[in-house]
Specification:
Strand order of the largest sheet: 1-4-7-10-13-16
Oligomer: single chain
Distance between the termini: 33 Å
Structural class: mainly beta
Helix content: under 10%
Order of helices and strands: EEEEEEEEEEEEEEEEEE
Mean pLDDT: 86
Length: 191
């Protein structure tokens, strides 16, 4: 996906730009990994609760790459400017022959502003592979219990490099929050 224009979503759980690559029904090793590449050079905005400006979920062994040099604005609570998750789930309902996770790479040089509580400018999670974030842009989170960057993994590695300004203004908020071993679900709230 390449965006050079204006993309907006208005409403709860509305994603402005979204991509999903799934595993076969019942889990299992993926024969042909699906890659996700998103390049935003434009304006992305969301209005509503639980929304994501740029969203990617990849359940295959393919790589996920998100580049943002544009602007991302989200006004609702519990929202992500950029949200990405990779890897198969190992729970009671599926038993893959081997863990599947292509990992992800997020490169942000744009502006991300989050107004709602419980939100995250960049929120990423991998199950088994590398979770790599490089940020040179400015990130502002204004709501309580929010983070500029949240990066987590279950059994992979996490790397966050930032040279941009990250400002977390409200109570119980963090500029950068990293967890090497996490629960299956993550949030922007402090643990």
């Amino acid at each position: 996906i390449v965006n050079k224009g204006i993309v907006s979503s208005n409403g709860a759980e509305g994603d402005a730009i979204s991509s999903f690559v799934g595993a076969p029904q019942g889990g299992g090793q993926i024969g042909r990994p699906g890659t996700i590449t998103i390049d935003n050079q434009g304006l992305v905005q969301t209005i509503g609760d639980d929304a994501e400006g740029i969203s990617a979920a990849n359940r295959t062994a393919g790589k996920t790459t998100i580049k943002n040099s544009g602007a991302v604005f989200a006004s609702g609570p519990n929202s992500y400017g950029i949200g990405a998750e990779t890897g198969s789930d190992l729970d009671e309902s599926e038993s893959p022959a081997a863990p599947v996770d292509g990992g992800l790479n997020v490169v942000n040089s744009g502006i991300i502003e989050m107004a709602g509580a419980g939100s995250s400018g960049i929120n990423t999670h991998t199950n088994f592979a590398a979770n790599d974030i490089a940020n040179s842009g400015d990130i502002l989170v204004a709501g309580a219990r929010s983070t500029g960057i949240t990066a987590t993994t279950n059994l992979g590695s996490v790397s966050v490099r930032s040279s941009g300004d990250i400002i977390a203004r409200a109570a119980d908020s963090y500029a950068i929050f990293v967890v090497g071993v996490a629960e299956k679900s993550t949030s922007a709230s402090p643990l």
